[in-house]
Amino acid sequence: MLGLPDVITVALFDLDGVLTDTASVHRTAWTDTFNAFLTQRAGGAIADRTDELRPFTDQDYFDFVDGRPRMDGVRSFLDSRGLQVADDAATAIAAAKNDAFLAALDRDGVVAYPGSVRYLHAARDAGLRIAVVTSSRNGAQVLDAAGLTEFVEHRVDGNTIVDEHLAGKPAPDSFLRGAQLMGVDAAAACVFEDAISGVQAGAAGRFGYVVGVDRVGGGQSDAMTSAGASIVVTDLDELLAEN
């Protein structure tokens, strides 16, 4: 009834963009933070910017930041532009992004996608065990604010990744750690992801099923399929209609 293979007993959900409508908050926080950095680097001049200092775009977010641990996102984007900064400057960029994200949470709150909430209820009722695997270091706060903590048996988040020295997405380590905490092999777990890096992680970990959640449109669905998604949906409750 959940649109998954019978062998799947555990669901490993990404958080932002899969369960909660916070991916857009992250994207805005990254955009504001990187554009402030790029403007400062350009000396405030916009018209005379060189190509590597052009404004940060949504495509930059999807290609270099989305789904990755915060510092990995900073380095990935800066590397894409050929920009070198000292470690303390990179740390300052990451801290500024987090401050912007937390300020938005305080101001606007957190909304869980209704389709995702319906799916969580159906999954729990069907006996599917649930964990959250997110690169965000604010995973606990977001779950609590969205009222979703009750569904989650285990959580692997950005703090876990740092504390346990795990490689971030697109490496499969965080999802594999989630499966380990749930006591199952990867083949018995399904990964739910809205980021290309997360879909790549699910495929690299040889999980039993990988659900891509396309909240973007355009070529995102095709990109998810190419990255290894078993199926791509625009909302989780579409899976309930698969049966």
Describe the structure.
It is an enzyme of class 5 (isomerase). GO terms for molecular function: hydrolase activity. Keywords: Carbohydrate metabolism, Hydrolase, Isomerase, Magnesium, Metal-binding, Phosphoprotein. Its cofactor is Mg(2+). It is a single chain. Helix 2 packs across helix 3 and helix 3 packs across helix 4 (87-108). The chain contains 10 helices and 6 strands, in the order E-H-H-H-H-H-E-H-E-H-H-E-H-E-H-E. It has 2 domains: 10-22 and 110-242, Rossmann fold (3-Layer(aba) Sandwich); 24-108, DNA polymerase, domain 1 (Orthogonal Bundle), CATH 1.10.150. The chain has a 6-stranded parallel beta sheet with strand order 3-2-1-4-5-6, sandwiched between helices. Strand 4 (189-193), helix 9 and strand 5 form a beta-alpha-beta unit. By secondary structure, it is an alpha/beta fold. The protein has helices at residues 23-41, 58-65, 70-80, 87-108, 114-125, 139-146, 158-163, 173-182, 196-204, 220-227, and strands spanning 10-13, 129-133, 154-156, 189-193, 209-213, 231-233.
